[in-house]
Amino acid sequence: MDARATALHVESVGNGRPLVLLHGWALNAGLFASLVPSLARSHRVHAVDLPGHGHSAPSEQGSLGAIVAMLDHAFGDEAAPPDVLGWSLGGLLALAWARAHPRRVRRLVLVGTTPKFVAGDDWPHAMAPETLRRFADELRVAPRATLQRFVTLQVQGSEEGRAALATLRKALFARAAPDPSVLSDALRELASADVRADVPAIRASALVIVGERDTLAPPEASTWLARTLPDARLLVVPGAGHAPFLSHAAAFLAAVEPFLDR
Fold first, then answer.
1. Interhelix angle for 143-154 vs 129-141, to 10°?
2. Taken in order 88, 61, 147, 39, is the CA torsion positive or negative?
3. Catalytic residue among 12, 43, 214, 248
4. 88 an active-site residue?
5. From 88, 158, 205, 222, active-site residue
6. Local confidence band at 5 (pLDDT 50, 70, 90 cut-offs)
7. For helices 161-174 and 143-154, what crossing angle results, to 10°?
8. Contact 29, 96 (CB under 8 A)
């Protein structure tokens, strides 16, 4: 664990410019294990277990803003501002961090990221509110089965879904089971989260990556992000679902490494 991040479990490896990896809801930093050796060749990689996930204890404050404050406390004193790679919920946190502390985040890699997880009259690129509510109800009744179903949705439609699903299932319970109250709180945060108004003010350069067949954060949401961020480009990974870094790792790294190293 990184000594600076007393409230977060952080696994750090490599040398070079700092790179913070932020996972998605209900998972943990072990999900990035296959990427770390490549990324650590030119970066000091910090893989974070978010509060209440993996080896990190739950936080008394589970709001997105509170988690961003924890991340900034852990990494804001780096000699150089870190690059941040965030997937799904991690991408939403990366956006919020770059907006709240623009001088403390250098570049963003936003994977399967949406500024608003729930659909509305002016935002069709997301899941229906009733779908998220039903998911929250099922989580209270049968948490393990619900989480298993959730990871299956991550690779739905992906050409290489079987291998990616095996990795997701392994990561889901490889560390301490996610704290149920943390998961419920996070779902409530996701139900109300909407950072669209902040996106035009984010100055960090961004690489926005989405699977062509992503059903949880549809490609239209990433297209909107890439168009609205002041300095961003979009990569749509053909045949990929919500976890292109697992299902299409070679194409993913071929885009990410030069972006971070340029």
1. 140
2. positive
3. 214
4. yes
5. 88
6. very low
7. 150
8. no
Task: Tell me which residue of 221, 220, 248, 238 sits closest to 161, measured CA to CA.
Answer: 248
Q: What domains are defined for the chain?
A: 9-261 (3.40.50.1820)
pLDDT in tens, 100-133: 999 999 999 999 999 999 999 999 999 999 988 8
9, 23, 242, 248: which is the annotated catalytic residue? Answer: 242
118 DSSP assignment:
B
Strand 43-49 to 83-87 pairing: unpaired
Task: Indicate the residue type of 157.
Answer: G
Residue whose pair of structure tokens reads 């100055």 in the numeric block: 203
Helices 64-75 and 89-100 cross at an angle (nearest 10°) of 70
20/84 Cα distance (integer angstroms): 5
* Catalytic residue status for 248: no
Q: Which amino acid, residue 173?
A: F
**pTM strictly above 0.85:** yes
Q: Longest Cα pair distance anywhere in the chain, in angstroms?
A: 48
Nearest-angstrom CA–CA distance, 70 and 66: 6
Helix, strand, coil shares of the chain, percent, nearest 5, are: 45, 15, 40
Is 125 marked active-site? no
| Token couple for 175 | 């560390």
Helix (H, G, I), strand (E, B) or coil at 2: coil
